[in-house]
């Protein structure tokens, strides 16, 4: 066996208390149901393989998986198997053997539970510290954003004030310029008017003496500005600048500016925008709906606690030479157009199950002894279609159902030497439901829509890896 496996990361981790996580493992380990239509010997074999797999996981430090399988073993042989109608027909020696194994498994499962609780307690401590660290980082980030927001508001106010002052200064400058132009024009007009009065006075003095001057002075017209206001007082002589209009009022212009001045952004809006930004450091723990239980009970399934997503299958590695060597062993039967069937067994490496054995033993006890001797797990079966293509017939579907019922990764390999093709299949979820409910024997039709079987996506065919073919035919 290889070294330590990576620590499992199940969906029950981190956020839950240690007691709650242990409870979830126990609940999943208790999900064992007995299909009374399956032969009880399948459950006896399944129990043996549960222990093999649990021992492998335990040796590799994969304690969640080991605990679940040990608990399933206890549940099956202490409680559930008694419901099977053939329970009383089980040889007493087998029952005694399993009772002894149950007594051994109880303390092992209890020790694993204590180790898991210690580990979960440590992980909970780490989780709380991590959450506290994230909360502090988030608080610091929020404070930084608040300070940046306030600074931005101050800069916006200062900018708006500056723009307003610049616009008001521009208006005043323009008004002053226009006022100076008007003043210069008015002063020029007054000078010209004064010049005319002097000229007229000189002419009057020459023509009529004093009286003429007086008459002329009485006939000087008043000067009016463009808006009709008196610019020259009739009571006395005007001097340049003495009757100029007052500087224009800025109030009307400033009111117009106020309507169009740059506005400071609404503070409440900016605060809302700031609080709606996604957290940079915070982590959202996904909620898990545990109310949905799997419709198919696989006795050796680990579910979400096996270090994979719920429903995912562990990889089965199949050496390419397996099919070649099996066809060679089956060649004599193939020439007679007779099918050859073998059992696929293998060993567990992490989450990989490479089939290493193909056999054709009908003696159940001999197969069990061989597996015990070599510490092998049953991974499915392989058989030939000498005259047909590679597919699963109705009989094949029923033959494969118990394998996949016990282990979700179980595969069915079909070799068609005539058509030179090989298929590696598994039942679909729909196929498991249909075949599990079907009680017909022999070849019989099934509705093919939806499909009852499919190609295995969890199988990896590799060019390396050795294969042992044990041909036990008499």
UniProtKB/TrEMBL annotation:
<dbReference type="GO" id="GO:0070536">
    <property type="term" value="P:protein K63-linked deubiquitination"/>
</dbReference>
<dbReference type="GO" id="GO:0061578">
    <property type="term" value="F:K63-linked deubiquitinase activity"/>
</dbReference>
<comment type="similarity">
    <text>Belongs to the peptidase M67C family.</text>
</comment>
<dbReference type="GO" id="GO:0046872">
    <property type="term" value="F:metal ion binding"/>
</dbReference>
<dbReference type="GO" id="GO:0006508">
    <property type="term" value="P:proteolysis"/>
</dbReference>
<dbReference type="Pfam" id="PF08969">
    <property type="entry name" value="USP8_dimer"/>
</dbReference>
<feature type="compositionally biased region" description="Basic and acidic residues">
    <location>
        <begin position="159"/>
        <end position="170"/>
    </location>
</feature>
<feature type="compositionally biased region" description="Low complexity">
    <location>
        <begin position="201"/>
        <end position="210"/>
    </location>
</feature>
<dbReference type="GO" id="GO:0140492">
    <property type="term" value="F:metal-dependent deubiquitinase activity"/>
</dbReference>
<feature type="compositionally biased region" description="Basic and acidic residues">
    <location>
        <begin position="139"/>
        <end position="152"/>
    </location>
</feature>
<keyword id="KW-0645">Protease</keyword>
<feature type="compositionally biased region" description="Basic and acidic residues">
    <location>
        <begin position="257"/>
        <end position="269"/>
    </location>
</feature>
<dbReference type="InterPro" id="IPR044098">
    <property type="entry name" value="STAMBP/STALP-like_MPN"/>
</dbReference>
<feature type="compositionally biased region" description="Basic and acidic residues">
    <location>
        <begin position="188"/>
        <end position="198"/>
    </location>
</feature>
<dbReference type="InterPro" id="IPR000555">
    <property type="entry name" value="JAMM/MPN+_dom"/>
</dbReference>
<keyword id="KW-0479">Metal-binding</keyword>
<feature type="region of interest" description="Disordered">
    <location>
        <begin position="188"/>
        <end position="210"/>
    </location>
</feature>
<protein>
    <recommendedName>
        <fullName>MPN domain-containing protein</fullName>
    </recommendedName>
</protein>
<feature type="region of interest" description="Disordered">
    <location>
        <begin position="231"/>
        <end position="301"/>
    </location>
</feature>
<keyword id="KW-0378">Hydrolase</keyword>
<feature type="compositionally biased region" description="Polar residues">
    <location>
        <begin position="273"/>
        <end position="286"/>
    </location>
</feature>
<dbReference type="InterPro" id="IPR015063">
    <property type="entry name" value="USP8_dimer"/>
</dbReference>
<feature type="compositionally biased region" description="Basic and acidic residues">
    <location>
        <begin position="289"/>
        <end position="301"/>
    </location>
</feature>
<dbReference type="InterPro" id="IPR037518">
    <property type="entry name" value="MPN"/>
</dbReference>
<dbReference type="GO" id="GO:0005768">
    <property type="term" value="C:endosome"/>
</dbReference>
<feature type="domain" description="MPN">
    <location>
        <begin position="316"/>
        <end position="433"/>
    </location>
</feature>
<feature type="compositionally biased region" description="Low complexity">
    <location>
        <begin position="233"/>
        <end position="242"/>
    </location>
</feature>
<feature type="region of interest" description="Disordered">
    <location>
        <begin position="139"/>
        <end position="170"/>
    </location>
</feature>
<keyword id="KW-0833">Ubl conjugation pathway</keyword>
<dbReference type="Pfam" id="PF01398">
    <property type="entry name" value="JAB"/>
</dbReference>
<keyword id="KW-0862">Zinc</keyword>
<dbReference type="GO" id="GO:0016020">
    <property type="term" value="C:membrane"/>
</dbReference>
<keyword id="KW-0482">Metalloprotease</keyword>
């Amino acid at each position: 066996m290889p070294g330590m496996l990576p620590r499992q990361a199940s969906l029950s981790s981190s956020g839950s208390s240690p007691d709650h996580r242990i409870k979830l493992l126990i609940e999943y380990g208790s999900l064992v149901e007995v299909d009374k239509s399956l032969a009880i010997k399948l459950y006896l074999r399944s129990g043996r393989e549960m222990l093999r797999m649990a021992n492998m996981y335990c040796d590799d430090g994969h304690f969640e998986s080991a605990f679940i399988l040990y608990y399933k073993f206890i549940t099956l042989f202490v409680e559930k198997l008694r419901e099977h109608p053939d329970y009383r027909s089980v040889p007493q020696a087998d029952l005694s053997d399993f009772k002894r194994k149950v007594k051994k498994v109880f303390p092992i499962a209890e020790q694993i539970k204590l180790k898991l609780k210690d580990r979960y307690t440590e992980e909970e401590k780490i989780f709380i510290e991590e959450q506290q660290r994230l909360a502090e980082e988030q608080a610091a980030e929020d404070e930084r954003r608040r300070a940046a927001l306030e600074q931005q508001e101050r800069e916006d106010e200062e900018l708006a004030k500056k723009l307003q002052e610049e616009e008001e200064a521009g208006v005043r400058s323009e008004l002053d310029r226009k006022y100076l132009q008007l003043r210069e024009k008015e002063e020029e007009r007054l000078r010209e008017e004064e010049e005319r009065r002097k000229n007229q006075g000189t002419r009057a003095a020459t023509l009529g003496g004093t009286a003429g001057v007086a008459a002329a002075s009485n006939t000087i017209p008043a000067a009016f500005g463009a808006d009709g206001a008196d610019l020259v007082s009739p009571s006395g002589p005007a001097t340049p600048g003495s009757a100029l209009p007052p500087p224009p009022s800025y109030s009307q212009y400033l009111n117009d500016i106020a309507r169009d001045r740059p506005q400071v952004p609404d503070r409440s809006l900016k605060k809302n925008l700031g609080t709606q930004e996604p957290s940079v450091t915070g982590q959202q723990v996904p909620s898990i709906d545990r109310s949905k239980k799997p419709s198919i009970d696989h006795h050796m399934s680990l579910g979400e606690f096996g270090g994979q997503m719920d429903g995912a299958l562990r990889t089965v590695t199949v050496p390419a030479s397996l099919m070649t060597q099996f066809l060679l062993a089956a060649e004599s039967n193939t020439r007679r157009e007779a099918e050859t069937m073998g059992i696929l067994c293998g060993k567990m490496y992490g989450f990989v199950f490479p089939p290493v054995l193909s056999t054709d033993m009908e003696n159940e006890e001999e197969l069990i002894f061989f597996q015990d001797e070599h510490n092998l797990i049953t991974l499915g079966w392989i058989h030939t279609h000498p005259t047909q293509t590679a597919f699963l017939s109705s009989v094949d579907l029923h033959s494969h159902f118990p394998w996949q019922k016990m282990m979700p990764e179980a595969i069915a390999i079909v070799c068609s030497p005539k058509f030179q093709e090989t298929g590696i299949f598994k039942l679909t979820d729909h196929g498991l439901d249909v075949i599990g409910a079907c009680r017909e024997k022999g070849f019989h039709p099934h509705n093919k829509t939806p499909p009852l079987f499919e190609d295995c996506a969890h199988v990896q065919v590799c060019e390396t890896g050795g294969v042992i073919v044990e041909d036990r035919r008499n």
